[in-house]
Amino acid sequence: MANNVLLVLELIVIFVLFWADIHRWPxxxxxxxxxxxxxxxxxxxxxxxxxxxxVGLFQPNSWPRVIVVGFLVGCAIEALELFVTQxxxxxxxxxxxxxxxxxxxxxxxxxxxxxxxxxxxxxxxxEELVWRGYLLNRLAEALGSARWSWALSIVVTSVAFGxxxxxxxxxxxxxxxxxxxxxxxxxxxxxxxxxxxxLAHGVTDTIDSILLFSGHYPMP
Length: 220
Known about the structure:
The chain is an all-alpha fold. About 70% of the residues lie in helices and about 0% in strands. The radius of gyration is 17 Å and the shape is globular.
């Protein structure tokens, strides 16, 4: 009973954060939802007697293997996005992803350094802890941890992950839904270890930052 009440409260907080972000309430969501969701995840884990380690933040059996897998998967996801899914979605929706928020990155070394820093901290590390570590596990466990519950959790969290990037327009939203599902697959294939998706996420965002900085981002 207590766990069900906690789950409802968590869902309410998540809904409020999304609502506030979508409606541009800067006094509620400052810069990003991720830090707030990290705190929510930490509280939820503590109240349920869990830790970040229990959802995947533990040392892998082989760091070299994880680094290679993370790098290759990150490059593969980036290639799929830039040359397959993004052109197809841009054609279907008649609009490319809206990356106007990153316009200042072009030709600006200081902004590039900041973008890469945020790519590996807030995005790669923070978002993987939130979306794959906390939310994916939380929903799957709430549904009973059966195979179908993990499949449903992948769908729900990936859709939510895409919607969290609403400022990128329809193309960006669906693109991030696909990326989210792929990162879920990497997480599960790694034995629910978060380091492979963290590295893959960091690689994709770093490549995006470099391409935008250099003016070589292939807009459809």
